[in-house]
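It is worth pausing here to work through a concrete case rather than discussing structure prediction in the abstract. The textbook approach is simple: state the sequence, then state the predicted structure, then interpret. We follow exactly that order.
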Amino acid sequence: MRHCSVQVRGLLTRDELDRYNALMEVGAFLESANRYDLAYTVQHEIDLLIQPAIERLKEKGRARDRATREYLEAKRLETESAEERED
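Step two, the predicted structure:
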């Protein structure tokens, strides 16, 4: 079974995390019983389950990028303003 990243797991809701852990346990059992055909189906369910958390992680990244852009723009304007006052 493939685990999702710690960042994605951190963004799962409590219900999603409980379901994720249960599915991982079932998948590990199936793999230990060499039932890879069924483990594949469980892995597919896990992949679907974590999609909302992946989207939340992407949105956090976009928000961070926006904040960085705004900060850099403010610094640029501040620098230009300071240069104009010196002239």
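Step three, interpretation. The chain has a mean pLDDT of 95. The CA atoms of residues 8 and 53 lie 6 Å apart.
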